[in-house]
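Narrative progress, year one. The postdoctoral researcher (J.K.) led the effort to move from monomer predictions toward full complexes, under supervision of the PI. The following entry was the first complex the group processed end to end, covering 455 residues in total.
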Amino acid sequence: MGLWPIGGRAREATRFDREAMPHLDAAYRFALSMTRDAAEADDLVQETFLKALRSFESFQEGTNCKAWLFRILRNTWFNKLRNGAREVDSDDAMEAIQDAALAGWDDRAFYRAPDEASILRATRDELESALRSLPPDFREAVVMSDVEGLTYKEIADVMGTPIGTVMSRLYRGRRLMRRRLAKAMGIDEVEEEAGGEVVQLFAARSKGEGGHGM
Amino acid sequence: MECDVLSRYMDLYLDGELAVQERVEVETHIRGCEGCRRFVTGESRFRAVLRQQMLAVRAPGSLRDQVTEKLKGHRRSSTPAWRPSIAYAAAVAGVAILGYLVIATYPKAQDPVAGAVAAHVASTGLEMSGDRDQVETFLRLHAPFSYRLPVADREGIRLVGARVTRLNGLPAVVYQYDAGGKMFSVAQYRIPEGAAEVQPRLDHQDGFTVATYPDRGLIQTLVGDLPDGEVSRIVPAAWTY
């Protein structure tokens, strides 16, 4: 039941400060990646922390508090978004599009190039906009794993999906992100050679356009 | 292990999600394969760059202050998390006196709250969207038990759809309502034979307010992104048919 004994409430409050407050930055980053808008992210984080305080009894000690906050944040966001039923995940349609986008792409090609001309040099702006360009389900999975360090199981709990779905969203999301990043940085494969063995990473940029000093 | 086999394990390897034995196999392969080694090195360096750059994004100081203030305000003003309103208590008592209140029983192992929250979050799959008449037509044909609309239509609250499903292994109907732009859902089950008594209760889970209450042979669990006051305003309505 929701009744805290008086002494218990103060203890709960301290525990909340200790467990939840350190994740404010992470919650803000996650909110930004979901809303893609700073003002919306602000509101969402405030609402999330209020709800978290109210629901703190349902947080299980020993589990990842960051993941628990993300789940509340995500539920709150989708609740705001949906007017009527939330749109059904269009995973199947999305997969077809992503597969087309990834066809012929060899992820090893990203790291065949010397460092000074690879996606390792991406700036924060470039990384952010590559993340933003991902379909929401992929973006969430990539942010939770690659930035926030959640495990597959934790991500599956946040998203309410089986672990297999998390793995497939990560796989596609990561590759799509790297590919878009490479494109945006002007580092791109030219074409797949016959036999598909070698994918050239660098477009032979015409000298007139300048480039990365290659 | 071949390179193409390895590439399927690569994400799991880099994410630290492989069992020890698989990990050893991957590492053995990497030691002997320059292509894979370069990929693993490049990919882990890229992840480090991504992480480092993105972790530099911090909540603005103003947001931190606002959150701290809000939490303080909430703690000062909040009464214990929920106390049924007098109207609610009166409604419950009234119904009981009229003999409508069946002593609700429920197997202890099954938690109606958990199932109902999951159903609310997944309420993507409304089988039937429409107004009250359309929903009733649908339920007359498909409901697995003799259903009863849990909340009467009234100003500001509108039935917008329903579906028939199973929650906690029991046949259930999930209704979706629109309360002035905020959605809430009510999962309804028939009370199983010979189960323990269910008292009306209110929980907060995953950011939702969840009210569970017995109603004339049925158990209903309301889940919504609603303040407690709003829920206790809606819940008594369920008793006033």
